[in-house]
Amino acid sequence: MATDSLWRRLRGWLKPDAQAAGTRGAMHTGAASSRVTASLRSLLDDPTIPDAIRSELAGDFRRIEAMLERLERGELHVAVFGRVSVGKSALGNALLGRERFAVGVLHGTTTTAQQAVLDEANQDGLVLIDTPGINELDGEARERLAFDVAEVSDLVVFVADGDLTRDELDAIHTLAATQRPLLLALNKADRYGADDIAALLERLRERTAGLLRAEDVIAVAARPAAAHAMPADTHAPEQAPLPDVAALRERLLAIARREGKTLSALNAGLYAGRLTDQVSARIARSRRELASRVIRQYCLAKGVAVALNPIPIADLLAAAGLDAAMVVQLSRVYGLPLTRSESGRLVAVISAQLAALMGAIWGVQLVASALKGVSTGLSVVVTAAAQGALGWYATVLIGRAAERYLVAGKSWGEQGAKRAVADIVASLDRDSILREARDEILRRLKSR
User: What is the bridge-based pairing of β-strands 114-117 and 126-130?
Assistant: First the structure.
């Protein structure tokens, strides 16, 4: 399932018609969320996913389970990003109204993602996630962690403390590509005058045009600098101003109230779509590997059988039976089982195309088959090995062509069997296959 296609379908499920409002819109979103939940459960419980692949992607499946729990609790997860020391953790604490995230003067205080439910927003299920700085010195691992968190979050707040650097703008572009709604918080606004703040906000809106809405660029002061006492009262303690994050908090709560469930369901579906793509790719790879083993087994069986059969022409008839049996096995590998008669007809179609393309090779094989009955001594072994190698090569071609037919859902495609078989012949190195086959067959003949 392509992610873009899934995204469009989920948008259709989750966004009510423009004319729908109130209860009707809520019912639409609720039904769509239920549909997404059912899709996630279906992915988790899919019996066709092999255990090995499920184990390989265990972390991803655990994320899907966590997303299901999140949907059931009605939570909206918000990831906070930014450079080191722009005040991400302080902003999280200010939004929470308590010291939940570690804040320090050294770079890199936040080394792992942390999260906490906003006290003021329990009824809306808003969950804040603090992340490491995107420009840590050992940044690759921590940056990857940050983007992993973004992938399973519903909304992103990017924190800056001035005009954007090149790295910050690149990160915003990357985050926007994840299709998450983005807010930009200009932190440490207490350091600027009113005119400077207005100019900075305008500059940030210009530089992020097309990525963020203008109203989503908001000035905040998560940890304002303490104001010094008046000179006449030199013994008075420094005053600690209250954080100024009300505008950002209200924007987050408004989004949570208006479309929190929609965002959670949409992003869970997007993640499930990517996981489905990964599962499909790994299943395809596993099937290709198994198909290669099946083809090689039949190549060996056919090559040795042809080489050992002393009766001219009869060895070729026996080889045709092995090819049909191989195609039956391949059809089971790809979950599209064929009967023996169906596989025989498929082998006949492929063989006819091979004969048209490579008549000279099959002529050599027929001559070798006839000569084998009258040759003696070492020449018999050499002739048998050569003929067996040709049988091996023919089985490779038939197996690969049958595999292509099965991968396409029992179809040769628009260009038909002739082009498909020709492409297979062109893609294989005949000389190396024949050399490998002859060496293997000779080794087995001499060991008998």
Answer: antiparallel
Q: Are residues 172 and 252 in the same domain?
A: yes
Give the count of alpha carbons within 13 A of 146, CB side only.
Answer: 28
- Domain-located, residue 292: no
Q: Are residues 261 and 338 in the same domain?
A: no
Residue 37 lies in a domain: yes
Token pair listed for 167 = 């790295």
pTM of the model: 0.60
Q: Which residues are CB-contacts of 412 (< 8 A; sequence separation ≥ 6)? A: 405, 419, 420
Q: How many folded domains does the chain comprise?
A: 2
Separation of alpha carbons 153 and 34, rounded Å: 19
pLDDT (tens digit per residue) in 344-400: 899 889 888 887 776 655 555 544 544 444 444 445 566 677 778 888 888 898 999
E strand segments, 296-415: none
How do beta strands 155-160 and 114-117 pair?
A: unpaired
CA 374 vs. chain centroid, Å, equals 60
- In the chain, the amino acid numbered 330 is L
> What is the extent of the structural domain holding 184?
3-226+233-279
Instruction: Give which of 188, 189, 187, 183 is closest to 208, Cα–Cα.
Output: 183
